[in-house]
Each structure stands twice: as structure tokens, then as C-alpha cells.
């Protein structure tokens, strides 16, 4: 879990031991999963609408634990974000280098201990199904949101 996720979850839930298993081992109760899904929906509902196609404006919101992508092999893998059919590194690179506006909201609201929402790309544009357990994380929000 990234530091951002830990802070987000810690400040969303009461400070008691009920959240500890979710923070330490991604073993979240059904109540916590529901709260995380509701938080995601509320977050998405308050995002400002994009105006124009200026490349420096964009959003990339994902449910898997992509905040840690820079520090693991998944960043350079052929795993794609559902709803875009593009890898996280391609999406980020296009936004960062101002090649195009990136506006991707992952369609799967899967919080911790759900199945993954990254899929294996077979280079033909087809999915090979859900990816390995290293992606079985949830509600992480990577936002590339500038000048909205």
C-alpha cells in the first residue's frame, strides 16, 4: 500500500483496530470495502469536467495499487488499464510529455482483496483475462490532474 493510500484510508475510517487488517494485509471487511467503493463514487462525482483537449489537463484514475508502479516491474509490463487498452506507462508518458490529453477512469471499483482490474495484453489488443495476484489490490487513485 502506498503512503497516499495509508493516509487516505486512515483519515476515512475511525481510528480503531478495525482498519488495521486492511492497512497491513489488504484483508478488508465487507463494510470497509463498501465504504471504499462509496468513497470512490463520491470522489468521481466531484471531479471537475474537462474543458477542451489541452494535453496538460488530464486524469488517470485507477482502482489497483498503481501508486507503487514506479517501484515495481508492473510499470514496464504489458498490463493495460481496463477502459483504455493502454499500459500505465504509455498513458503516463503521453500525459507527462504533453503528447495528448489523458482522461481515463478505470471502470472497475475494486477495493482491497478484490480481483484485479489490470488485464494482460496479448499484443493483439485482446485481453487474456485477469492478471496475477500481484495486482489484486484496490482503491488507489493515481491522479494526473493539472490546471483543471
UniProtKB/TrEMBL annotation:
Matching entries from PANTHER family are given as: NOTUM-RELATED, PECTIN ACETYLESTERASE 8
Enzyme superclass (EC): hydrolase
Arranged from A to Z, the UniProt key words for this protein are: Cell wall, Cell wall biogenesis/degradation, Hydrolase, Secreted
In the Enzyme Commission scheme, what number(s) does this protein have?
A: 3.1.1.-
Q: What is its main location?
A: secreted
What this chain does, per the entry, is described as: Hydrolyzes acetyl esters in homogalacturonan regions of pectin. In type I primary cell wall, galacturonic acid residues of pectin can be acetylated at the O-2 and O-3 positions. Decreasing the degree of acetylation of pectin gels in vitro alters their physical properties.
Q: Which GO terms describe its cellular component?
A: plant-type cell wall
- GO term, biological process aspect, one: cell wall organization
Please state where this protein is localized.
Answer: Secreted, Cell wall
The entry assigns this protein to a family as follows:
Belongs to the pectinacetylesterase family.
Q: What GO molecular-function term can you cite, just one?
A: pectin acetylesterase activity
Q: What is this protein called?
A: Pectin acetylesterase
Q: Which Pfam families match?
A: PAE
Amino acid at each position: 500500500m502506498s503512503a497516499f493510500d495509508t493516509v487516505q484510508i486512515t483519515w476515512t475510517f475511525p481510528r480503531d483496530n478495525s482498519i488495521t487488517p486492511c492497512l497491513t494485509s489488504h484483508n478488508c471487511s465487507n463494510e470497509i470495502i463498501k465504504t471504499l467503493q462509496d468513497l470512490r463514487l463520491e470522489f468521481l462525482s466531484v471531479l471537475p469536467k474537462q474543458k477542451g483537449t489541452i494535453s496538460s489537463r488530464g486524469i488517470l484514475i485507477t482502482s489497483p495499487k498503481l501508486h507503487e508502479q514506479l517501484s515495481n516491474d508492473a510499470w514496464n509490463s504489458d498490463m493495460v488499464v481496463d477502459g483504455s487498452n493502454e499500459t500505465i506507462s504509455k498513458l503516463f508518458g503521453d500525459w507527462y510529455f504533453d503528447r495528448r490529453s489523458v482522461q481515463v477512469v478505470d471502470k472497475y471499483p475494486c477495493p482491497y482483496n478484490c480481483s484485479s482490474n489490470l488485464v494482460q495484453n496479448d499484443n493483439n489488443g485482446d485481453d487474456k483475462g485477469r492478471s496475477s495476484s500481484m495486482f489484486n489490490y484496490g482503491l488507489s487513485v493515481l491522479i494526473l490532474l493539472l490546471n483543471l
